[in-house]
Amino acid sequence: MTNKSVKKVVLAYSGGLDTSIILKWLQITYNCEVVTFTADLGQGEELGPARDKALLLGIKPENIFIEDLREEFVRDYVFPMFRANAAYEGVYLLGTSIARPLIGKKLIEIAEKVGADAVSHGATGKGNDQVRFELTAYALKPDVVVIAPWREWDLRSREQLIAFAEQHQIPIAKDKRGEAPFSVDANLLHASSEGKVLEDPAQEVPDYVYSRTISPEDAPDKPTYITIDFETGDATAIDGVKLSPATLLAKLNDLGRDNGIGRLDLVENRFVGMKSRGMYETPGGTILAVAHRAIESITLDRGAAHLKDQIMPQYAELIYNGFWFSPEREMLQALIDKSQEFVAGSVRLKLYKGGVHVVGRSSPYSLYDQDLVTFEEGAVAYDHRDAAGFIKLNALRLRTLGQRKKKLGL
343: left (phi > 0), else alpha (psi -120 to 50), else beta? Predict the structure, then answer.
């Protein structure tokens, strides 16, 4: 498709310097009408300035879309992911990754609504987000045109970007005049920081990088105790007070922040092939992940729990790589959701100086039988002598292997 064939494009727009430059670049390069979409995912920023800046750059009021997606984000994306106990490479709770399919879906919905033939994003050609946005777009609208300016334009440095902005009278915040010390992505689940001062993995993350948590050393000397209630695998209440998904996560974020919980310094493997170092803060998500595993520990059968642990890395990798709308992720989700039918009850936690400690768990569907595990004698359907046959049957192949080794003198 040539530049002239794009008549209208929907841009994922934050109102920041990069996407404002992209907005003007689209108008100039494609000579097309631009529609902006700004998502409120709980990033903690006032979104009014994004609207004002879009108006300043010539966008018609009817072409400016700002949507509060916090409840949908947590209910339909974060919670399903947490049912799987998903953690990329064992530790990353996928805060940025899980937001992209929702933004991509909304881009396509708006494109359909306004009759746009293209969508655009501000992800760079080195990162994962370009993949996530575009896989989502193509899955939901196969014939859509995706414009990725960072892969097309010749603006290769911060100085060139600022010069372009000044040439086209795009407002520049004072702290954008020069190199930013690091870049930040934030939503209700987490904040991530990467680049510049964080690029050397041998150096400790400077204190000023952290925005969502206090230092564990500065957290209160007295522990905080909370109870989280679950129904079908999803958290529904804190200390007996029922809360909406987004409100509940926000409350856990406050508790995690005040207790120095949820910091992660990680060198990860990007989908595009390189390693990158990032600093993640996921205060509420860290608490929720520990609590969910705790309620599963008494409600999930061993086979079901171990199967979930086996498929979790694949599920997490699908999300990290941008395949939320793939059939394999949906198939795994159906299996995971089936496992959560009886994952209900309460988990009591102690939050203390960066740590989340399970101190109690209970459920009306608990599989924990105190009579079976007690060291005291009781009227239970378990005979200690049965264990002898169980062990001998399981040892049969090991004994056979041992006999062969003995014959061979090994």
Answer: beta
